Structures are given as C-alpha cells and as structure tokens.
C-alpha cells in the first residue's frame, strides 16, 4: 500500500542516526542516544569513510554543518530577545534542551509525529525540562487542519504579540516541490499573525556542477530506498531558492553555503562543494 500524502513516518529512520552524530560531536547529552542510533552509526561507518575518501564529503559532514549554521542564525535572533522558537520534526535534536540550559525565559516547543513526540517528551521529563517553557507536541506539517496542524500548534502554543523563529532541519527534502511549496506558503501565511518571524531550514540543491554529481545522485536514491520516501533535490541555484520563498510570501531570503560560512570553525567541510544549504527566510515587522 502506498503511503498517504500526509504520512511522514518513514523519515524518523534517520533521526536516530542524526541524534548519535550530534552526541559524538559532544553537542548532545547521552540521554538522546538510542540503541538504533548506535547501530546505524556502526553500520554506516565503512560507507562514511569511503564517501569521505571518494566524494570528499559524507553524511556526518552534512549533518554537522547544517546544524551549526542553523544554530548560528538562531543565536542571532535570541541575542535580539526573540525568545519564542518552534522546531518542527525535531526528532532527537538537542537544540532546545541545550538552549534552555542557557536562557531561562526561552519558550521552546518541539514537534514530531506521535511516537517520536512521546519518546522526546519522556526524555525531556527525565532531564528535568520545565514544561512551562519547553515541551513537545504532535504535528504533521502536511495536515492543514486539526490539532496536529502547523496552524493549530502556532495558535495554541505561542504568543502572537511576540516574534517567533521556526526551524525545520532534515525535513523538507523528503517531499516533492509542489507539496513542500504548499507548506511554505501556509507557513508564511500563519507567521503573518506575528509582528516578525524567521524561518530556518536546510535544503539540498541540484548537483549538476559537482564533480561527483553522478555518485551523489545514486547516494540520494539509496537514501530514498532506506527511508521509503522521495529525497528531492529542490533548487538549481541560490537565486531559484530565493524566488521560491519570495513567492511563498517571505520578505527577505538568504541562502548560506557551509563551505563559505564555516571556514575556520574546525568543523569538517566538503571537498568539491557542499550539497546542503541553510536558508533563512524573514517576515519583517510592519
């Protein structure tokens, strides 16, 4: 049976591996590690070493650089006193937990599908998270009505008189362009109720000019098979990405290349060109 348009459950496969990569980087607490994450990390190590040697990059490099760039942009907002954050499909991300240790008044809401949301809620409870400022709710970004819709989460859990930052990491490229374009338009419309808003996401661009374009496309097809979903390379270039987000209703759009933005940070960078980009889309107050 084919999955329904609103079935995103297969994506959780990668959440376990990603969570373990963050832990290995010392960005996360051992509580975020799962048995499945450890197993996937061990199984993929030979492929990761081969990819790094042949392609000049690997999954770990992509995961760490996109996470670091999203954090950089989020920290800019937090420094300005914008203390409402919604992280969509958060999985085992340690971001909310880590930031709540530093910023007592930060209001952080994580979402995911029911099983992962329950696991994350239990985990945060064991870590002593304050449920008044940091909690997890169910949300399916493709649902356009009901309690688990994006619009309902924003209305029920945030103060529309204050700025907000919305994050999606490792999510949007699992959907074809028409589906995710519709989500971005809905997101922009929902964020219009706030005085200002910022959306941070990672996207994967087409790789025609990359020296290992053929191998990268084969790797993407393998990931699609593993996650039982379609992994889509969305944009030809930065300009196309910016046009799409302007059309969706965002006022200002910036696209960041990890290889240019993270030089000198000590993080691994891709040889031959990064395939991931981090995108910042702002709605300006007034």
Quick summary:
This protein has a single domain, classed as Rossmann fold (3-Layer(aba) Sandwich). 45% of the residues lie in helices and 15% in strands. It has helices spanning 12-24, 35-55, 59-79, 95-102, 114-126, 150-157, 177-191, 213-227, 238-248, 258-261, and strands at residues 84-88, 107-112, 134-138, 164-168, 197-204, 252-256, 276-283.
Write the layout of secondary structure elements.
Elements (H helix, E strand, L loop, with lengths): L11 H13 L10 H21 L3 H21 L4 E5 L6 H8 L4 E6 L1 H13 L7 E5 L11 H8 L6 E5 L8 H15 L5 E8 L8 H15 L10 H11 L3 E5 L1 H4 L14 E8 L3
Parallel strand pairs: 1-2, 1-4, 2-3, 4-5
Antiparallel strand pairs: 5-7, 6-7
Helix pairs in contact: 1-2, 7-9
Number of strands: 7
**Proportion of beta-strand residues:** 5-15%
- Radius of gyration based on Cα positions: 18 Å
- Output the structural class: alpha/beta
Helix content: 40-55%
Average of per-residue pLDDT values: 87
- The CATH architecture classification is 3-Layer(aba) Sandwich
Counting DSSP H or I runs of 4 or more residues, the number of helices is 10
Major β-sheet strand ordering: 3-2-1-4-5-7-6
């Amino acid at each position: 049976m084919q999955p329904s348009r609103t079935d995103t459950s297969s994506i959780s496969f990668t959440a376990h591996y990603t969570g373990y990569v963050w832990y290995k980087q010392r960005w996360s607490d051992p509580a975020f590690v799962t048995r499945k994450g450890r197993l996937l990390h061990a199984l993929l190590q030979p492929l990761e070493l081969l990819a790094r040697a042949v392609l000049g990059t690997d999954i770990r490099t992509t995961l760490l650089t996109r996470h670091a760039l999203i954090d950089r942009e989020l920290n800019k907002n937090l420094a300005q006193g914008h203390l409402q954050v919604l992280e969509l499909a958060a999985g085992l991300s340690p971001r909310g937990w880590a930031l709540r240790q530093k910023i007592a008044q930060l209001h952080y809401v994580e979402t995911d599908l029911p099983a992962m949301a329950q696991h994350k809620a239990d985990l945060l409870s064991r870590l002593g998270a304050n449920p008044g400022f940091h909690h997890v709710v169910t949300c399916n970004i493709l649902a356009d009505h009901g309690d688990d819709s994006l619009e309902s989460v924003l209305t029920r859990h945030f103060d529309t008189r204050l700025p907000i930052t919305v994050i999606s990491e490792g999510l949007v490229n699992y959907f074809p362009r028409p589906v995710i374009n519709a989500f971005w338009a809905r997101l922009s419309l929902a964020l219009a109720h706030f005085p200002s808003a910022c959306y941070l996401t990672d996207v994967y661009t087409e790789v025609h000019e990359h020296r290992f374009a053929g191998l990268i496309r084969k790797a993407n097809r393998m990931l699609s098979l593993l996650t039982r979903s379609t992994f889509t390379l969305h944009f030809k270039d930065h300009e196309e990405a910016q046009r799409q987000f302007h059309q969706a209703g965002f006022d200002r759009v910036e696209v960041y290349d990890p290889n240019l933005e993270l030089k000198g940070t000590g993080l691994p960078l891709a040889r031959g060109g990064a395939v991931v980009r981090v995108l910042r889309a702002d709605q300006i107050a007034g």
